[in-house]
Design goal:
By secondary structure, the protein is α/β, with parallel strands linked by helices. Helix content is 27%, strand content 22%. The two termini are 14 Å apart.
Length: 365
């Protein structure tokens, strides 16, 4: 079984053959059909994520087909459907303990201290080796939350890869922001995270959905998902963008703002565009990216602003992301602008690192 292995940072991934793993009781061996390349993967490739063990198989976004189920006991998906070989599936990239204070009392499994993620936390030196998505197979351990896609009929698996990460994480951010019908919403950045935020905000009944982005193809996708005020930061000044936002919101500013860029500096503009009593959510920053100065009195206290972080997601958010993809299937298919086979994985990584792609997927035959 073949996988692309990260052996050293800032170096090409290497194709390595691994033996077929033993599939234990409750485990599921999945043949990959598509794996998404996330911006987080690029950070890990570059050695910017302190969680990255070496050597490892990257890839925490995936869709595949059940090839083998271990043991004699049946395995069921989240909806109680018995899994069978040949079933297309997607899965929660995170495995949590379910019994700690965060999981059981606060209902925040995304903050579980024992939480680990396929393609992020585990190396591939020891069996079963296949614990990342940049491989033709992945072994899902007992306790992994799996969703059968058998009811989807014929579909392009690349359209769904982002649902398990950016789609789910943005659903968590939307939930934390608690958008109300008629709210004005700002989304900074129209990569996969931002595009999902636009779709969710529109679905929640937002009035104006304002997007700040510098790439026309991304702005076009945002418009197709319901954004009605598009501000290209390459051709506008911060002052012009403020005038446009204030004009659209009767001079108040947006009710909710989202940082979906992955670096902290734009948050200062976003905070200033959020009204008094509003909420500003940072969801795009996945690795340490430094600090920014915030005027606590003028920007937070006097405005009674709620400043909120959003870290990954719970399993329910994956289900929500799948519903959003189903509603906007063509748009999320078009969001995957670049596709590569596994043996061209380094070209695939470069397409994301160099921002040539909105989203790149590895496709398997």
């Amino acid at each position: 079984m073949k996988a692309a292995v990260l052996k050293s940072f800032n170096a090409p991934l290497e194709l390595v053959d691994f033996p077929k793993p033993d599939v234990g009781q409750g485990e599921v061996l999945v043949r990959m059909t598509a794996a998404g390349i996330c911006g987080s993967d690029v950070h890990m490739w570059m050695g910017e994520d302190p969680r990255t063990p070496l050597p490892m198989i990257l890839g925490h976004e995936g869709v595949g087909v059940v090839e083998e189920i271990g043991g004699s006991e049946p395995v069921y998906d989240l909806y109680g459907r018995r899994l069978e070989p040949g079933d297309p599936v997607i899965w929660d990239r995170a495995v949590v303990c379910g019994g700690c204070w965060f999981c059981a009392v606060k209902q925040l499994p995304n903050l579980c201290p024992s939480r680990w993620v396929y393609g992020i936390h585990k190396g591939c030196s020891d069996p079963p080796h296949l614990n990342g998505g940049y491989a033709d197979h992945i072994l899902l351990v007992r306790g992994t939350k799996i969703i059968s896609l058998a009811d989807w009929g014929s579909f392009d698996p690349v359209a769904l890869v982002s649902a398990g990460c950016s789609g789910a994480t943005s659903a968590n951010a939307i939930e934390l922001a608690d958008i109300k019908i008629g709210d004005n919403v700002l989304v900074q950045g129209a990569g996969p995270l931002g595009l999902y935020l636009v779709a969710y905000a529109r679905a929640r009944g937002a009035d104006n959905v304002i997007v700040i982005e510098g790439v026309k193809s991304r702005l076009d996708l945002a418009a197709r998902l319901g954004a009605n005020l598009l501000l290209d930061f390459t051709s506008t000044t911060a002052e012009k963008r403020k005038e446009a936002v204030m004009s659209a919101t009767h001079g108040y500013g947006v009710d909710v703002g989202f940082e979906a860029i992955g670096k902290p500096e734009p948050a200062l503009e976003g905070i200033n565009l959020t009204r008094r009593g509003g909420t500003y959510v940072s969801v795009g920053t996945a690795v340490p990216m430094g600090t920014i100065p915030v005027d606590f009195y003028h920007q937070l206290v006097l405005k009674q602003l709620r400043l909120q972080g959003a870290w990954t997601n719970d399993t329910r958010h994956i289900a929500q992301a799948l519903q959003m993809v189903r509603r906007n299937l063509q748009v999320f298919t078009d969001m995957i602008t670049h596709r590569y086979p596994l043996d061209r994985v380094n070209e695939a990584m470069a397409s994301m690192a160099e921002r040539k792609a909105i989203k790149t997927a590895i496709v398997f035959q």
